[in-house]
């Protein structure tokens, strides 16, 4: 696989606070570090206290920003309400929210997917983002605006055999994003989604069984010839959260190395 050096674009989020849900590993962790380098204060939620603590050590070592972590199960409505209350109290206002919590599933035809597996995917990938929006939108309306980014997937804009329920959950994220963006378009709140293709994270390797299996499956259909690095996805999140994206809302931005435009039928 071709290695890539990701050129970091400079943003300045000094004085702003970002809430990242699903921020301890993969895309979320890379985004938290990118926001920290840009000067934002961070409230990060996710699973894995050890991951949250190690992320905090990296951020605090930079000495630029304030950081707090809370372990949260995004399926739990009471826990999500408490998370947002604590974040609002800790920093006074949340300017940016990144709803990134998600999970994959092992590839299987729909008849082999259990009802329990169905509800777990929907609860994490879709309900979790709904619960985030439910608390973030009123807060931002009250404080005069903000930016929200939700994580969908390339499989949120196209179907893929053996991942039907995962695709359904990610299509739902885009439906939420589009609709809620319209609800708040005149309230100085922008809501967008990212739709990443293959990113070398635990989620990808879990879906295909191993890093090598993931490479063998997806590399032949990525025109750029490589799997993306989480830091590349983080750059898109920062852009959509920044004033540089001031006229962009209700969009699902595909970031996949050209796979979608090359033809989904190749997959």
Automatic annotation (TrEMBL):
<protein>
    <submittedName>
        <fullName>NAD(P)-dependent dehydrogenase (Short-subunit alcohol dehydrogenase family)</fullName>
    </submittedName>
</protein>
<comment type="similarity">
    <text>Belongs to the short-chain dehydrogenases/reductases (SDR) family.</text>
</comment>
<keyword id="KW-0560">Oxidoreductase</keyword>
<dbReference type="Pfam" id="PF13561">
    <property type="entry name" value="adh_short_C2"/>
</dbReference>
<dbReference type="InterPro" id="IPR036291">
    <property type="entry name" value="NAD(P)-bd_dom_sf"/>
</dbReference>
<dbReference type="InterPro" id="IPR020904">
    <property type="entry name" value="Sc_DH/Rdtase_CS"/>
</dbReference>
<dbReference type="InterPro" id="IPR002347">
    <property type="entry name" value="SDR_fam"/>
</dbReference>
